[in-house]
Known about the structure:
462 residues, five-stranded antiparallel β-sheet, mainly beta, seven-stranded antiparallel β-sheet
Amino acid sequence: MMKMMIFVYAILGLVIGPVLIQACSNATVTPQCHITSDCTDPVPANIAPCGDCCSTTGRNSFRKNSLGYCVPCVSKGCHIDSLGEKCSGTPELPGIDSLAECCGIGGTSFLGDDGICVFCSSVCYLDTGTGSGCNSSQTAPSISFNECCLNSTNNYYSFNGTDDTCTPCNSIGCHSGKDCDGDPEFNTTQILTCCDQTLMTGSFRNEYGECFCLNRSTDGPNGCNDPHFFIPLTNGDNLCFSIQGQPDFMFSLIKDEFVQLNALFVLPAKDDESETIANVSTFMGKLGLSLQCPLTGQSTNIQVSAQDHSVSVADAVAVVKNRVVTVKVSKHFDVSIVVDGNVQSDLKRDESALLNIISDFGFELQVRFYKKHLNFFVKNTDILTKKAHGLLGQFLASSVEIDPENNLMKLNGRRPIPVRYAQAWPFLNNPDNCWYGANTDNQATGMIDGVYTDYIVETLLP
């Protein structure tokens, strides 16, 4: 049985703040060789390339890095598939070890030691003739993206010989957008650096032509699982889950006798701050915190807004932008707002403010502001009772039982649910793994009590 630590961090947003949690550590971008065929075993080994992994006894799958796809060892070799399923299943000619040989005998696709699938119908457009891009008249068929781009960054590559999949060689690197289009805005070929420079909101194209959306989960291309909750357990493990909620709705995060914390979920804003991006993840736009002193019964309400970077207490309003602000609540319920000065030097360049909410009776919250959203970190929960509930509260003052042999988790005597032990999200600067719900969705169905819509509230503050 494992109980929650006093220091609990809720990560709500795509960019992460304090020392414990930062964007993209080196541990998340190393090659991983797995025993299972779907890259889900809890203790992968750092064996690379794919060929070395697959020739190791007992290893059945390979992931080039934490943002990449899982490659089953069974698919390594030359495929003569005619159904369009490239590099999937068992290769008809597993012993073939070169793309040229595979394509020369009528193969359709080839998976080599690097774990990259190359199509025999792929075409490298040299872009030195009369055309431009994938309309160029000079081509080199059956070639990999890397080989195509070695000659010139002006080359273009089409993995199946059609114009609608044209990839320019000069798109390798770190992009501010999510589709790897055009020249990369950031001069780096390292995923780690790209994570930091785009705050996990951009994209990265590697030397194999693969485009990675940096804010997706470690399970594959489908991501945008915000907001994220990261809860350390007393034995050193972590519990991780995501609740996307619903934009423009308010949700109960903590509901208890002396503490209530609600949040408004919003769509992320574009850089021009005038539009929102539809059909993607939600963010925290506002927080409403109500504190009641257990001794005197006095209460106060605190509202935090990402829209104007402000904190409001009673009639007092402080703009937090470009400085650190601390709200102190004493046991006699005197409330003070202290402006500490300029933004601390350890804040990232796109973090424009830091807010601390501290009470003398056992509750502490830290909020970091970004362009139009915020992250918060619950750092002291002494005031919470065993009756604490809410999307986050139910995990803060309760016991979590994890059966590692059978991969099951049980909270407060509820029916056990399947969990999996896997690498934490790539943007967490934490080399440890997390327990995730094995069959859950982006709404933590099965992990939380009831369903996420049960936690909708009508007002931000009681």
